[in-house]
Amino acid sequence: MTFVHFVNCMALAYAPYVVTYKSSILSEYNTLMKIAFAGIIYMLTQLGKMLTLATFFPTLEPSQPGNINVISEMLKTTVDLADLAGIYFIINRTIGKPELKVLISGVGWSGAQVLFSHILSFWFGARGLEFSWKYIQMAIDANITLVHVIAISALVWIWTRNDLNRSLLPMVTTLLLLSVYRDLIVEIIVQSFALNPWILLLIKGVFTFSVAFLSLQFYLGLVEAS
Amino acid sequence: MLEEASQAIEAFRAGFPMAFLAVVPVIFMVMSPIAVVDAAHEFTVYRMQQYDLQGNSYGCRSSLVNAEARTIHSSSYARKCVLIRSSELTHTKYLEVVDGGPSAIVVLLCGNMSNGQIQNFIEMENELLSTDSSIPVYFANEDQELNNVYDRVTHSTKVESSSALQAMVDAATSVGYQLVTVGAASKSMPDHSIVNIEGFLPGLGIEDQLPTVAVVAHSDSFGVAPYLSYGANSDASGVVVLLELARVLGKLYRNSRTHPKHNVLFLLSGGGKFNYQGTRRWIEEALDNSASSSIDNPSSALLSSASLVLCLEGLALDGTNSLRMHVSKPPAKGTVADALYKNIEKFGGGDVDVSLVHKKIRLSSDSLAWEHERFSIRRLPAVTLSSFENHDHPIRRSIMDRKDKISMETLVKNTAIITESLVSYLYNTTDDNMLNFVSGDYGIQKERMQTWMDFLVASPRPAQALHVDHPVVTALEAELNKHTKGVHKQAFKADKRDPDFMFYDGLVLQMSASIVRSAAFDLYMTGAVAAYLAVIYFLVLKFNGVLSIAKKFNSLPKVKVQ
Q1: pLDDT by residue (tens digit) across B519-537?
Q2: Do A129 and B547 touch (CB under 8 A)?
Q3: Where, by residue number, does the polypeptide cross the bilayer (chain A) (predicted)?
Q4: Cβ neighbours of residue B17 closer than 8 Å, sequence gap 6 or more
Q5: Do A125 and B554 touch (CB under 8 A)?
Q6: Among candidates B543, B498, B139, which has minimal Cα distance to A220?
Q7: Which residues from A are below 8 Å from B533, CB to CB?
Q8: Nearest by CB to B533, which of A11, A121, A163?
Q9: How confident is the model over B496-516, as pLDDT tens digits?
Q10: Beta-strand relationship, B137-141 and B104-109
Q11: What is the mean pLDDT of residues B486-495?
């Protein structure tokens, strides 16, 4: 497609990040370096995950489309728990208001993720001759990722708080686990009902916004109380 | 923003080596592998003939295509690549399309064409070859995916929008296909050689003093698209008959009791469809050899003493029951041609309709009608045996000359008649039952002929493909070697300074059809993205409002107060 298409995809994917940065308290507190720090932590975490995967799950077959190997995917996704550790580390190392902590880790982490996993696809794919909705879907997915990671960051922050009502802890933990296994769950649903990519995106979005809404409630509860 | 960036750069500069070493490899490792683009639909296209012959250019002059697809149902063709189904294609239609100024034409060859449509196509093919085309013309075998492409293009380009709104919606939703050929522009092939294969059977006695009969058939095929031409009738059938003759005669010549006092020459000529270039070259060399004393090629030197040159072409024509002897001048009484014709009449008269067709050589014409005319020009007695009633039968130069259009029964019958007549002439006998051609070693082996026919029509054999090491060429050489002596290949190139013929490459290419959207689609997309971003902007700006709404739903137990 045309260069305009590439620009469209880039704008759709990355402009929300810029908007979030510019019009939230992130820019007021001048946190670009901290966000870059969060991005570096993201990279190091991914590196660690790759090494773990390569060391401990070397023979796992990649699952074929239409027939996913649930057990092996489950094990692989379990390694993603390291993401929580990485986000926890960022929140721990950031000093400031709670919303600042959550936003820095959320925007930094998801920004790095979206940057590294999509930009080359956009460059080579969306500028290519063939038109495909795939790149628009990827760009929308980048938006969902932003909400997803901010929600996870909020949950991790809530989880670390001592003043959290103990009876809520299992719910928070469940939400965290759901977030980590989100991709796998959505994938299984889509596979078993043979749904198209747009529905996949919709389910992902609904899932993410539900988790985000719940984590917002917990977060507000904690912030109000303190 | 700028300040922040400069701060970041400053921080990097301060701790440069460490940060650099730590970060750069990680970036490379974390970057996900490049997602390969969804492969566009790719298919093989066969380009129309392109060649120069005796100073004239034929066929299409260019090969590169990069244009959006249209079909003949579309409203305009200008600078587009037009897809046409072969069943819908006639010559008038073709001219109509060319008038629209397309940048390329792709003809989809349907599998199931009616006889009338095939007839139309063959005639169109010959018209197409006679006109020079500046735009690339391609042929492709139709398949399911190509059909889908065709249908979608027809659908999206045919409908005339009724209202302005409808037009806007159509512009945004229409799906087009961009057709692109993979590969470089076509180049001439000055080093391509044409290959003749010859073999001979020496008669009993001193070769130079014996009369010689030459049997000739050309091995190449021709059609509007070289790599789609199988030439089953013209001239795989002639080659098969020649091989069968070589086998039977080879057997007779090996036995000292049946060794006739005649030499027989076999020639499988190349470039037969290009005004018999191979034959021409062979005659020139043979006559030069016989003139000079140093004979390095004794077999072809015998040509100068030939009593008859027998060319074979189109002997398996389905639906006819006739065998014709084409001559440039009627054979006089007592000549070999006359004797052979009488034999053919005698042996085949009951079964088939034998006749003599006389056609004078038109020296003013660009091309010769039959292969024997090459010999007749040089005053060698020559005839062509064929089922074709005249030389301008369009199937002789058509890609529709395929395996399913020939009849093996006709071929076997014709082979029996020709073999019998020739053998009868060689022994100068009138005995009807001299040899048993029905069974035994001297019988016509139908299975063998079928095998050779299957082999020859299994792949296209255009002159552009038949180089010295082509499987068909080596197989024919090996087969002749089994039955005759002195077999060798004669490969020759066109003259560097003044080429008689010139071929061009890029005749088989891959074409890809990529889905593309209109420019209006991009525009609407930009609008949608901008609107979406505006919404996001206000949501983030007024996040406190969002929070206050969210609070209203907050019914969770409050944090315990410590």
Answers
A1: 888 888 899 999 999 998 8
A2: no
A3: 35-57, 102-126, 138-160, 166-186, 198-220
A4: none
A5: no
A6: B543
A7: 11-12, 15-16, 19
A8: A11
A9: 888 888 999 889 998 888 888
A10: parallel
A11: 87
Q: Cβ contact (<8 Å) for B541 and A23?
A: yes
First to last CA, chain A: 53
- Residue A188 above 60 pLDDT? yes
For the stretch A138-154, pLDDT in tens is: 999 999 999 999 999 99
What is the rounded distance in angstroms from the CA atom of residue A5 to the CA atom of residue A11?
Answer: 10
What's the length of chain A?
Answer: 226
Measured N-to-C along each axis, helices B115-130 and B91-99 cross at an angle, to the nearest 10 degrees, of 50
Residues of A in contact with B40 (CB under 8 A): 129-130
Distance CA(B126)–CA(B399), nearest Å, equals 10
Shortest CA gap B513–chain A (Å): 8
- Cβ neighbours of B527 in A, within 8 Å: none
Among the four given CATH numbers 3.40.50.11720, 3.40.630.10, 3.90.180.10, 3.40.20.10, the one describing domain B193-502: 3.40.630.10
DSSP letters spanning B272-329 = TTTTSHHHHHHHHHHHHHHHSS--S-HHHHGGGGEEEEEEE----BTT--EEEEEESS
Spatial separation of the C-alpha atoms in residues B375 and B381, rounded to whole Å: 7
The beta-carbon neighbor of A220 closest among B4, B512, B550 is B550
CA-wise closest residue to A134 among A142, A143, A125: A125
With tokens 């969002």, the residue in question is: B546
Find the residue in A nearest to B558 (Cα). Answer: A221
Q: What phi and psi, each to the nearest 5 degrees, are found at residue A64?
A: -75, 150
3-state secondary structure of A6: helix
The confidence score (pLDDT) of residue B37 equals: 41
Say yes or no for a CB contact (<8 Å) between A217 and B23. no
When divided into structural domains, chain A yields a total of 1
Backbone angles phi, psi at A46, to 5 degrees: -60, -40
The ipTM assigned to this model is 0.88
Q: Are strands B137-141 and B41-47 parallel, antiparallel or unpaired?
A: antiparallel
Contacts of B32 in chain A (CB under 8 A): 116-117, 120-121
Q: Length of chain B in residues, anyone?
A: 562
Task: Please state the domain extents for chain B.
Answer: 1-35, 41-187+508-517, 193-502
Which residues from chain A sit within 8 angstroms of residue B562, using beta carbons? 163
Query: Confidence class of residue B17 from pLDDT cuts 50, 70 and 90?
Result: low
C-alpha to C-alpha distance for A109 and B538, rounded to whole angstroms: 23
Neighbouring CB atoms inside 10 A of B510's CB total 12
Residue B517 has pLDDT above 60, yes or no: yes
pLDDT tens-digit profile of B110-153? 888 888 888 888 888 888 888 778 899 999 999 888 888 898 88
Full domain range(s) for residue A50: 3-225
